[in-house]
Amino acid sequence: MHPIALTMGDPAGIGGELTLRAWLAHPGMNFVALDDPEQLAGVAKSLALNVPMRIVEHAVEAAAVYLHALPVLPVRLAEPAIPGQPNPANAASVVASIERATALCLTGEACAMVTNPINKAALYQAGFHYPGHTEFLAVLTGAVGQQIMMLASPHLKVVPVTVHASLRASIAMLTTQMIVDAARTTATALRRDFGLVRPRLAVAGLNPHAGEQGALGDEETALIQPAIDTLRAEGIDVSGPWPPDTMFTPAARQRYDVAICMYHDQALIPLKTLDMDHGVNVTLGLPIVRTSPDHGTAYDIAGKGVADPSSLIAALTLAAELASSRARQVT
Fold first, then answer.
1. How many CB atoms lie within 10 A of CB 262?
2. pLDDT of residue 314
3. Calpha distance 317→4 (Å, rounded)
4. Residues in CB range of 266: below 8 A, 6 or more apart
5. What is the CA radius of gyration of the chain?
6. Do residues 199 and 190 lie in contact, with contact meaning Cβ atoms separated by under 8 Å?
7. pLDDT (tens digit per residue) in 256-270
8. 240-258 burial, b for 16+ CB within 10 Å, e for fewer?
9. Domain at 1-144+290-331: CATH architecture
């Protein structure tokens, strides 16, 4: 299988350290770093990480290199990165790393892409116009409107219907069609990428006790139940609306494969509480496989040698599994 393309993320964050530690900790993986080799060498030296590197011109060279050195497809920075200090001057390089990784996946030179964390504010200052990775990748791959964010761990998979919006705005923008679209994309991805023949979807309510038959809110009857009815008519195994305060207990989680949640924190709080270190962000609905660690740039610990690569390793591992599943579907 072709290598995974790993982007640099914000060079002032912990992405470089995570890349180096992932290579040290995961000798069986095959990924190529789309990063600045001099920057990575500087991080390795400052943290006393013994990581030999080799510059490659093509992603396909990574497999022959990986067991002996970290393969790097150079994406040069405009200015040296200082740990903990985001620099808009390097935004173009961060974006170029994402663009090149996407192109490698679209041409089949990479089997999947994994993105190190970015700093959106620094990118915005340099003219980046997208809310984040997910929306940018949808544009790059021609899948605008089809992208859905899933957070996955060994204990729980969640999909928020509304994502990066305030709670007030999330409730205002929620529609039956949004719920249907998110659930359809999720069911398709679980079958194609996760190998589940008949995935079970649990749809969360919005209000306490899932509205208590309208006493605590009517969104369940006005918006959520119609979506569930539509999905059931299409043959999707879906249940709900579930009371949000009880659907994440150990017993409840045995009854579904993914929770479709109404807003960002309803989905991410239980997942991160259960398994912060191994949570993975997966973008569903794209023609390529994309995962990322479920954490940010961690400027407060950048350059201190204490970054935990567990989430990045989980993202790399899951990306390889999803890519293999897609390959089996093709053959």
1. 26
2. 94
3. 10
4. 160, 204, 244
5. 20
6. yes
7. 999 999 999 999 999
8. bbbbbeebbeeeebeebbb
9. 3-Layer(aba) Sandwich (3.40)
- For position 1, what pLDDT does the model report? 74
Q: CB atoms < 10 A from the CB of 189, how many?
A: 22
Check residue 330 and give its pLDDT: 63
Over residues 142-152, the pLDDT tens digits come to 999 888 999 99
20, two tokens? 């180096």
Q: What is the pLDDT of residue 283?
A: 95
> Which residues in the chain come in under a pLDDT of 70?
330-331
**According to the model, what pLDDT value does residue 128 have?**
85
Cα separation values, 95 from 118, 129, 205, 312, Å: 9, 11, 37, 19
Residue with tokens 């919006």: 165
The domain spans of the chain are: 1-144+290-331, 148-285
Q: What is the 3-state secondary structure (H, E, C) of the chain?
A: CCCEEEECCCCCCCHHHHHHHHHHHCCCCCEEEEECHHHHHHHHHHCCCCCCEEECCCHHHHHHHHCCCEEEEECCCCCCCECCECCHHHHHHHHHHHHHHHHHHHHCCCCEEECCCCCHHHHHHCCCCCCCHHHHHHHHHCCCCCCEEEEECCCCEEEECCCCCCHHHHHHHCCHHHHHHHHHHHHHHHHHCCCCCCCEEEEECCCHHHHCCCCCCCHHHHHHHHHHHHHHHCCCEEEEEECCCCCCCHHHHCCCCEEEECCHHHHHHHHHHHHCCCCEEEEECCCCCEEEECCCCCHHHCCCCCCCCHHHHHHHHHHHHHHHHHHHHHC
pLDDT at residue 218, as a whole number? 87
Fold match, 1-144+290-331 / 148-285:
yes
Q: CATH 3.40.718.10: does it fit domain 148-285?
A: yes
* pTM metric for this prediction: 0.92
Q: Round to whole Å and give the CA distance between 123 and 317.
A: 28
